[in-house]
From TrEMBL:
This is Phosphohydrolase. Gene3D superfamilies: Hypothetical protein af1432. GO terms for molecular function: dGTPase activity. GO terms for biological process: dGTP catabolic process. SMART domains: HDc (SM00471). Pfam families: HD, HD_assoc_2. Coiled coil: none annotated. InterPro entries: dGTPase-like, HD/PDEase_dom, HD_assoc_2, HD_domain.
Amino acid sequence: MLRNGVAASPGRIIKDPVHGDIEVDAGIESLLDTPPVQRLRMIRQLGFSFLVYPGANHTRFEHALGTMHLATHLCRHLSLGVLETHLLRAAALLHDIGHGPFSHASEPVMEVFCGHGHDRVRDLLDDPATASALAGLDLDPDEVAAVIAGKHRLAGVIHGELDVDRMDYLHRDAHYTGVPYGAVDAHRIIRSTLLSETGLVLDESGVQAAESLLVARTLMRPAVYYHHVSRIAERMFLIGAMAHCEDGGDPKELVGMDDPACIMALRESESGIARSIIHRLLTRDLYKRAAYVGIGSLNRARIPQPDLRDSFRLAEEIAAAAGVDSGSVAVDIPSFPHDLMIGVSVKNHHDIVSLDEISPLIRGMNEIRRSQWRLGVYAPAEHRDRVAAAAAEVLNLRPVTKQDKLLIDTDEVEGR
């Protein structure tokens, strides 16, 4: 059977709560059943966000399926050939196989000990079953890895500002958390996407849909992705994971685990800190905010870049000033916000221009992103006051703004 010039082998239909029916033909099915992809069933998409939103138990596997589904629609819309379609669908399905346990929560450990992030997947494609499935689709593993790493002329499909990866996770994360901010008109964006000599461009008719994706990203950041409880849990996890690795645990083995295996490794760790931290996480006995401030309250020269080891050194300094154990202080330094430069080209009647040039929303989004940034210092409830005083001294904090006070004093509604 041919669909838009692309051969579609008989396969099966998978029911998805976000997209409905997802078609899985025989070629993709062989890739779907490989160990690297099946491992994603045991990795939560949103890490520790289930401690805030009980419904946030969806997995990287579901997201990989959804991303592949949207990539299929985009390939059909662009009338791509068989090999290019196979390439993009396979890359979409495999794009997250490099994630460690609890998704982005373990990424800093991977970066410190492995020297790379989750998008470097080339070695994982040598898994025998995966290599065989790719060969069955006439795909070069190097080319698949290049698409996933964003180093291919078609990489914008899953590695761009308006990619199918982002379209799926915003919608899916909003669905499972119950947060009503992730609505994205993915099919309108797909219908408005064109293929030019320089790559993907957006037809002028899709500008509003593209802007809605930017709004969704901006609103989902504080509500879900940077919710303070999730950030606290992630920093606690990093304390436990680093302690485990420093007491004999193999960091490369750790980041290759799924969530249950990682929990077991920390429970049985030689490190008492690791065992204590994982117990606290599993019983939701979390640290509290000792400091939680925006850029306006900080001496920028005193704040290091968001490197894991630097944040740990700063935590040790604050802990020493507070007279508490270093494992009782977590410092959370997100990347400093930068101006949102979408870099998406829009084709109108006369020319191809940047979306940044024609969308007044982007300027507003940049200001909102800057106002959302927070540095957090977290500690157990019994140490919070001492750590707060020490953090103010060590970081030379200025008086907090009215907006900062609102965020500190107002407890956000949590689905508990």
